[in-house]
Amino acid sequence: MNLILLGPPGSGKGTQAKLIVEKYGIPQISTGDMLRDAVAQGTELGKEAKKYMDAGQLVPDEVVIGIVKERLQQPDCEKGFILDGFPRTIPQAEALDKMLEELGKNIDAVINIQVPEEEVVKRIVNRRSCRNCGAVYHLIYNPPKEDNKCDKCGGELYQRDDDKEETVRQRYKVYKEQTEPLVEYYEKKGILYNVDGTKNIDEVFNDINAILQKFT
């Protein structure tokens, strides 16, 4: 079962992907995680990607496509995969189609998690990460016991550059302009399924699970 998760930043794609991984045992391929790893390790790719990420812009297609192609050829993707954060543009979707054809694979379903802009801003701007262990908190939904202090390791909590309001609104704008056309692209292929992302996590997963049952 090969899936794509669509939705604006902060729509819960990563959370839902992890729940799908637990239930169906297929790997989550998050370009965001892969890019952040490259940034953290200070690789050439990471340095290049960081310039775009800090400005709230998309990382160039050729960089992302190279990463994804290598990942899809790893053994754990044989039974399926979840693409989270890719494709983000029509050219990426077309490159993905071509790449999958070369690998003898295809996409079964595209899950589009719908969340309006103000809800996205509220979710992301209130996120805090631990500098030490990487744990993530939310000042409204999942606050730390002590201000600016990680419950797990006592490390300092900080707001990632790409979680600041100005950057979040820029990311949402970029999403509307460049990623939303994918909704129509996959609708025409007959594999798009819309899900209301403003519900709670379990309700959203139940809606997604009802769709995925068709492919198992």
What would your notes on this structure say?
This protein has about 220 residues and is of the alpha/beta class. The protein has one domain (about 1-115, about 180-215): P-loop containing nucleotide triphosphate hydrolases (Rossmann fold, 3-Layer(aba) Sandwich). The protein contains 9 helices and 8 strands. It has helices at about 15-25, 30-40, 45-55, 60-70, 90-105, 115-125, 165-180, 180-190, 200-210, and strands at about 1-5, 30, 80-85, 110-115, 125-130, 135-140, 155-160, 190-195. The chain has a 5-stranded parallel beta sheet with strand order 2-3-1-4-8, sandwiched between helices. A 3-stranded antiparallel beta sheet has the order 6-5-7. A hairpin with a 5-residue loop joins β5 (about 125-130) and β6 (about 135-140). It starts with a strand and ends with a helix. The model has no long low-confidence stretch (mean pLDDT about 90).
Sum this structure up briefly.
This protein is an alpha/beta fold and 216 residues long. The chain contains nine helices and eight strands.
Record the SSE blueprint.
Layout: E1 2-6, H1 13-24, E2 28-30, H2 31-41, H3 44-54, H4 61-72, E3 81-84, H5 90-103, E4 109-114, H6 117-125, E5 127-130, E6 136-138, E7 157-158, H7 165-179, H8 181-189, E8 192-196, H9 201-212
Parallel strand pairs: 1-3, 1-4, 2-3, 4-8
Antiparallel strand pairs: 5-6, 5-7
